[in-house]
Write a structure and sequence with these properties.
Helix content: 40-55%
Number of strands: 12
Bound molecules: pyridoxal-5'-phosphate
Largest sheet: 7 strands, mixed
Number of helices: 15
Structural class: alpha/beta
Length: 415
Amino acid sequence: MRIAANLALDERVNALRAQGVDVLHLGFGEAGLPVHPGLVDALARGASHNAYGPVAGGVPARESVAGYWTRRGTPTSADQVVLGPGSKPLLAAVVACEPGDVVLPRPSWVTYASQLELFGRRAVWVDVPHGSGGIPDPALLPEALARARAQGAHPRLVVVTLPDNPTGLLARPDEVKELCRVAEAEDLVVVSDEIYRDVVFGSVPFVSPADLVPDRTITVTGLSKSLALGGWRVGAIRFPDTDWGRALRDSVVGFASQVWSNLAAPMQSVAQYAFDEPVDLVRHRGASTRLHGAVATAVYDVFARHGVLDVPPDGAFYVYPDFEPYRERLAAHGIRGGTDLTRWLLEEHGLAVLAGEPFGDDPRGLRFRAATSLLYGERAEQRTEALTATDPLQVPHVATALRRLDDVVAATVSA
Ligand SMILES: Cc1ncc(COP(=O)(O)O)c(C=O)c1O
């Protein structure tokens, strides 16, 4: 198994920077914001907890997570929740424990397909609806399933990402409803990755499959994005309150017991505090989301101005432009696909972005994902400055980075 494309790019950029190369790094999905002091205190309070504890996580932390989902209109008990070191291993555990193949939106987060490979499952790729993201197009799904079954696949799970990485778009309620209707008709389990749920800044209302088809939806979330705690590794998963849901939960706990034992006890203290959503932390999360929205929209404006993007982002911190209108011009430079394009951008312009191919997209597509959050700055003071500014777009280092991006995109489309 190769290192994940996003992590590999991050390591490459760090190596280039160590050699003194000036890179504008839009290649990695790190929230890039400081840790709220309340989280530091919660971690300190948990530091003396050194016993392993229950595999699923202790009751107090699981109760907090259950409260988080219940407040969002999805009644949840602590028994339905399992904590883990990030949502990534929890997703892997679901794939390992629920037999069958998996429908993935194209494009979708790089890790889903790689995890399927790890466990010998097939990906059934289905394009996202035009102008949307994060869900396989429900109109294309029945035919794709029939084709996959005819080829010997056994589709069982369908993944949705609400809002989405890499497109930054949130599927509309009617699209989510239609997807759930098809999932029900085709007897698919919906895996709803809601790690960006608290990073929505657009006007599309959030609808979770857990509220539409509760008996067949597994939901995952975590603290890596909304609270910028990627390195702390805190994730949570919710199973349906049914016989099947309980059996799958037990199986995931069994998997966890063999692989990671439990979420680190001090991190359970953090989870308990964070999922209780104290006012001060919610305010901080709101400010973070406003910053993500302002900068992602400004980056969208840059690409839109040059005709390579036409739907503004709704959430998360990504945009996914398409340079198809400039195919002929780019071909003159030997650029025929996303990987050529991103290599050229890095080598010629010092811009690091991730090509569409690792997201399952057509390698010939001239698409890539730009992660907008790394524009807040490299140093903690810069990030705090961006977070606390009335207008983050006027903060000098943010404004300079946006101008540089505009220059690079202008140079690319007129190359
Ligand atoms: C859609 C999506 N799901 C899950 C994750 C993983 O998050 P965690 O840090 O909880 O493992 C990411 C991180 O990039 C993501 O983009």
